[in-house]
Amino acid sequence: MRNHAATALTALAVALLAAGEAQAADAAAADQSGVGDIIVTAQRRQQSVQDVSIAISVIDGSKLAQRGVGNVNQLQYQTPSLEIVPAFGGGQPQFRLRGVGFEDYATNNTPTVGVYVDDVAYPVPVATQGVLFDIDRVEVLRGPQGTLYGRNTTGGAINFVTRKPTDHVSTGADLEYGRFGQFRLEGYLSGPITDTLKIRLSGVRESGGGFQHNRTTGEHLGDADRLFGRGVIEWTPAAGVDVTLNVHGGRDKSESTGLNLIGEDMISGIPADTSIRDTGWGFDPAFAKLAGVAPGDKPHRDNHSWGTSLNANIDLTDTLRLSSITAYDKLRRRELGDWDATAGNESNTFWGSNVQVFSQEVRLAPIHADRFTWVLGGYYSWQKIGETFLTDFTQSLGFYTDTSYTQRARSISGFGQGEYKLTDQITLIGGLRYEHERRTLRDFATAIIIPPSYNQPTFVDGDRNTSLNEVTGKVGVEYHARPGLLFYANASRGVKSGGFTAYNSPQADQINAFKPEVLYAYEVGVKADVARTLRVNASGFYYDYRNQQVLGTVVDPVNGPIGRITNAPKSRIYGGELELEYRPFEGLRISQTAGYKNGNYVKYFDNDSTASYKDPNTGLWVAVPIDFKGKRLPFAHWSYGGSIDWTVPVGNYSIETEADYSYRSDTPSFLGAEFAVRRFWLANATLTLRSNDGWYVGVYGRNIFNEKYDLTRNYFLPSAPIAQPGRPATYGLRVGVHI
Known about the structure:
Layout (H helix, E strand, L loop, with lengths): L3 H15 L5 H5 L10 E2 L6 E2 L7 E5 H6 L15 E5 L6 E5 L2 E2 L11 E5 L2 E2 L13 E8 L13 E7 L7 E9 L3 E11 L4 E12 L3 E3 L5 E2 L2 E15 L2 E12 L7 E2 L16 E2 L5 H7 L8 E2 L1 E13 L4 E19 L9 E19 L5 E21 L7 E22 L4 E25 L3 E3 L7 E19 L2 E12 L20 E15 L2 E23 L3 E23 L5 E16 L1 E3 L5 E2 L6 E2 L2 E3 L10 E13 L2 E12 L15 E12 L3 E8 L7 E5 L7 E4 L4 E9 L1
């Protein structure tokens, strides 16, 4: 199986070469017509996406808006091999790209997939949940990234590139109103202030859209309430100098999406829900007081964020450019959740998080390069998280828990990558990175609170340390067989930081550090403009995973089984992607994408939490191990998607029709078959009348076949098996003007 991707790519290579030089002229002309050209900055310089020798998908910002993609989580339906799951339906995203992911509902650990906005990294996953607006494009890079980026990631990177100030005054607004009272208004104002100064102001307001109700009272749940803005100033005081200041912020006071019961609640006796629109919630007054919320509140968030970045590019000489990126971001998170989806108090939660991140990146690169192109860089990052996590278990276990801690992380790294053009057709690539990181967990404690007066602090020593000192790198080769036909092969080593399991627990062993994980990645691919109207890109990969970070079980001799993030010594993942774009004539565009991945543990022993037992003679717990060798890794094998766009000019107007669709196969769960997320299809469509004068009006439908599907299935306690449902069919009106 591991050789299937390489075999398929070899066959494809033969077919493409057989197309011969007769296609070369057509392929070279693709930037004037046909499939066209897309310029990206994935390798820290402007390039055609067809000249970038890594697997990358690019999504235009206007398409994101048209398809209703409002946050990073929804990107999983726009690109192959990407999954982003909201942990327990909350604000903590769990990223997985090509099967490389990390299941963790806490806030303090780094993701396997890096998220960047205008070159600024967001290393704390919950901080990526702001609204997407005024986006130029999104670049999704698959595979380890570290020799060109400030941060090191094993899964890949998602780069958001926002729209820049314009040379002429322009303004615009887009309004959307749809089913369930969903409202979105986005606008911008852009233009020059002086000959050397340009500005762009943009913002978005979202409200409504809640589709659920309380199964008992009928009370409505799920309305959005978000307001975000951004100001960008570009200053070019002299030739060879440009400085961009970005100031952004906003607040999110939205109600949460409720959870469904997928089985009977064993404590309350409430049967499984039969409609995705049914849910339930309820908060004890004493718990609400502890969390600082009202007893009658709905599950919701009250998050505030702001930040700023300064990007500067200075030509030191006629041949050398220095780039600097300085950034600071702050998030205040307050999130109230009901994880048992009932009016009972089996598992109600509250997160109070304060996140600060500062980073400084510098890069040096040639302005013009002939045979040798290179980048050298350095990166420093400092982050602090102060968090309180409250859980109400009074009906299931008889107490509350109050977990709190402070975590700091400092990282410094040097990185570089060079590309040497050995011949007109062959380019050699090499990159190297050294990184030092230190993480400290301080004052971790879980207090057990039994109303009305019992409060038992735990953890005599709640301090832990962990560090990272790693060298990673990349080697690769490109073969430009002819204009419009690129073959490539890469081998790289990526590392993800270790960390701490910061869950509520009275057991001190839980917070012991887990190790960094290492990924050896091997990839081959081809990018081909087969004809002026047809583009085919394909890639195959094999990942050798070492010390993969997984949620497992350790058995404390005194306290028994503990849920804790551990390391699986060895596992593997393999698969590939295929992306096709076809433009048979002007106005019609057809795209298709497919991704396949498979993986299993090669060496991993965990402990069976249900079979482990307390020895009656010693009174100590005895661990019962399980051998997971050969067990499938829990991710979907298949992803598939596509779109059809057809634009027909009619006088001073044009009629635009668009349909897009996506598929995800079954996602198994280590919790058992009941908690597997079943396969699903989603389809959307739009119809738009656009004027040459800059205005448009259109209608849309999303999930038009009303597919019933889940985003995640889980339980915090076995008494309440839950799922977060996806949105049902929605439809509405879009109008806008851009002048």
